[in-house]
Amino acid sequence: MTSIVSVRDLKKSYAGGFEALSGVNLEIEKGEILALLGPNGAGKTTLISTICGISIPTSGTVRVGGHDVVTDFRAARNLIGLVPQEINLEPFETVMNTVRFSRGLFGKPRNDALIDQILKDLSLHDKRDSKIMMLSGGMKRRVLIAKALSHEPSILFLDEPTAGVDVELRKDMWDVVAKLKASGVTIILTTHYIEEAEAIADRVGIISKGSILLVEKKEDLMQRMGKKRLRIELSTPISELPQELADRGLEIAADGNALIHDYDTRSDRTGITALLKDLQNAGLKMTDLETQQSSLEDIFVDLVRETS
User: Fold this and answer.
1) Fewer CB within 10 A of the terminal residue: the chain, N end or C end?
2) How many CB atoms lie within 10 A of CB 92?
3) Where does the chain have alpha helices with state H?
4) What is the residue extent of each domain of the chain?
């Protein structure tokens, strides 16, 4: 795949010595959806702001579509649409004029048909003549997305785009994201809704304390680091493990009605067959078995915990 965004040894420090980004290296492939996950203060917004040319790097380089974001910032910025976290809109302007004005800022010719279609895709068309001040918070956030799409960017950055948006509107937004990807737009998003990243991202990047911990295909990450959990339902509750099972790494469920066993899917042998025989030999009767795969959230929490 061809990289449309290339970040090399990027550092960003502020007055007082705080280092928000510490040597970030990142290649973003053309046409992919990359989900950037990290706790508050990890550096997600700083990284996006620097790629978009809003924040000047302390050192390192960022190239967008082959253009340096510092020395050739106009060409780089023309390729980018940005949806920021903060809602900062002119309250007395209409939705249509707000989005139309953003297109004009990039030197694009007037195209009301395109703007109408963007508003329809974002369920905003019936509000096209409404003033911003009359919109709900979720509607205003969708206006931000419409503004970002108005100049037909090749790359779209979504910084917490669904914060404060209800479930139905969130689904509408991700439908739009899927259509944009199908049209060839590269999408980078930050989100606290990890299930969304798990549902729509091609690759996942995890950032903590200004450093990228990993960037990997979602499926490969979950296969490599995911674990499975076996829940063994018992016919009779227990309060402590029989001595024969003490070294099996089992956990008793809170209600005592089940045993929990975590195992690595990468191992040649899981040991489950031997475990079940040991349970039988210990006089424990099973009524049911259930397995669960680790989620992306489990992996994320574990990785961040390791670096804290």
Assistant:
1) C
2) 8
3) 44-51, 73-78, 95-105, 112-121, 137-149, 167-182, 194-200, 218-225, 272-281, 296-307
4) 3-222, 227-307
CA 161/CA 138 separation, integer angstroms: 10
Q: Which residue, 191, 270, 266, is CA-closest to 221?
A: 266
> 39 and 208 in contact (C-beta within 8 Å)?
yes
- Domain 3-222: give its CATH code: 3.40.50.300
pTM assigned to the model: 0.76
d(CA 116, CA 110): 12
Angle between helices 137-149 and 112-121 (to 10 degrees): 140
Q: Take residue 116 and report the two structure tokens written for it.
A: 């109408």
Answer whether residue 41 shows pLDDT above 80. yes
Instruction: List, for residues 54-99, the tens digit of each pLDDT value.
Output: 999 999 999 999 999 999 999 999 999 999 988 889 999 999 999 9
Measured between alpha carbons, how far is residue 66 from residues 29, 30, 148, 267 in Å?
13, 12, 21, 43
Answer whether 20's CB lies under 8 Å from 50's CB.
no
Task: Evaluate the CA torsion angle 195, 199, 200, 202 in order and state its sign.
Answer: positive
With beta carbons less than 8 A apart as the criterion, state whether 262 and 231 touch. no
Nearest to 106 by CA among 144, 48, 152, 155: 152
Contact 94, 131 (CB under 8 A): yes
CA dihedral 105, 108, 109, 114 (to 10 degrees): -100
Fold held by 227-307 = Alpha-Beta Plaits (3.30.70)
Do residues 197 and 190 make contact, with C-beta atoms less than 8 angstroms apart?
A: no
Worst-scoring range by mean pLDDT, 41-50, 222-231, 236-245? 222-231
